[in-house]
Design a protein that fits this description.
189 residues, alpha+beta, 5-stranded mixed β-sheet, 3 helices, 21% helix, elongated
């Protein structure tokens, strides 16, 4: 059973951030906090977690958060359920823009922006929330133990037809087969 923890104390008021120098931060959650985060992220354990960086002004009203995320995550292998330990080291960038255009209306179709590091600038910037989001995005979706047996090939087809195998879907498989056939034929002549 995971315990939900309040991390709102890490949110920084934009009005209090310096304009002429960076504001540095360093987050290293303790064991109970890591255990709570592991429960939220549905992983077995977070052995280590550290997020440090800075928030600096950019232009007159925008801010940029840059940081380095380091974590050791334990989660079950998707095949054997044995524990799999993964080391995560990632550079994180978030741009908080004051002139963010919210053109999306409720129910309207919108496209994803090309720059996925940009967000609207609100009243607070929360390095802890950025850390949790970045960690969630970097945790492997399908961890596999090193000694897990190889996955088999699935072959499905209609009765009476030749099955389509993985090798057949590779773009140059037919060309390689033709080349092998012609090379074999030229040696016999």
């Amino acid at each position: 059973m995971s315990q939900k923890m309040d991390f709102s104390r890490h949110a920084l008021a934009v009005s209090g951030l310096p304009q002429n120098r960076p504001h540095t931060f360093s987050l290293t959650p303790n064991e109970p906090e890591r255990r709570a985060l592991a429960g939220e992220l549905d992983v077995t354990a977070l052995r280590k977690l550290r997020f440090e960086g800075e928030i600096r002004s950019q232009g007159k009203r925008d801010f940029v958060l840059t940081g380095r995320l380091g974590a050791t995550v334990v989660q079950p292998c998707v095949q054997t359920l044995e524990p799999v330990t993964t080391r995560i080291d990632a550079e994180i960038v978030r741009r908080y823009l004051s002139d963010w255009d919210e053109v999306a209306q409720e129910g309207a179709e919108t496209e994803m922006p090309e720059d996925d590091t940009s967000e609207p600038l609100g009243s607070h910037i929360d390095p802890h929330a950025v850390m949790v989001e970045a960690l969630a995005l970097h945790i492997p979706d399908y961890p596999r133990a090193e000694d897990a047996p190889p996955l088999g090939e699935m072959v499905v087809t209609e009765p009476g037809k030749a099955p389509l195998r993985d090798e057949d879907t590779k773009p140059f498989a037919a060309l390689a087969a033709l080349k092998a056939k012609t090379e074999g034929g030229s040696r016999e002549n």
